[in-house]
Amino acid sequence: MDKDGLFGRALQAAQASYSPYSKFRVGAALACADGTIFTGTNVENRSFGLTICAERSAMLAAISAGKREFSGIVIATPDADYPVSPCGACRQVLSEFLPAEAFVHFGSSCDDKVETTIGALMPYDALHELGKR
Ligand code: THU
Predict the structure, then answer these.
(1) N or C end of the chain: which has fewer CB within 10 A?
(2) pLDDT digit string, tens, across residues 24-38
(3) Confidence tier at 133 by pLDDT (50, 70, 90)
(4) Considering the entire predicted model, what is its pTM?
(5) What is the best residue among 11, 42, 59, 73 to mutate for testing ligand 1's pocket, by most ligand atoms within 8 Å of CB?
(6) CA distance 25 to 76
């Protein structure tokens, strides 16, 4: 699927957002290396710190389905008027599984997107060797 198609899937995922507190919908479409797509949305909680972002929802769904290799992720934030980048916690979780060159595209609309990589969003990423022991 091309990046515009992925943005469409992310936008669609945002429609399911559970965000009664922020009223800020986010959707993510995660592309697996085998071409399958997993989507996720943000799920808030009245104990605010338990909120799960769209990016982590998508990643946890994919990992739970047995996927381990990914090419990138597209994030849609239809309630913003500028591209909203993944939070620090999501960058850390994405970097666990995405290779540095994996694409990360985020935007409020398909025509207003930032196109970058997880390596650029997560500089000096380290300690991957711990998983190989
Ligand atoms: N949020 C995401 O799901 N992903 C992002 O990249 C930015 C923030 C969610 C968390 C919360 O439900 C709402 O957006 C406002 O921060």
Answers:
(1) C
(2) 999 999 999 999 999
(3) confident
(4) 0.96
(5) 42
(6) 8
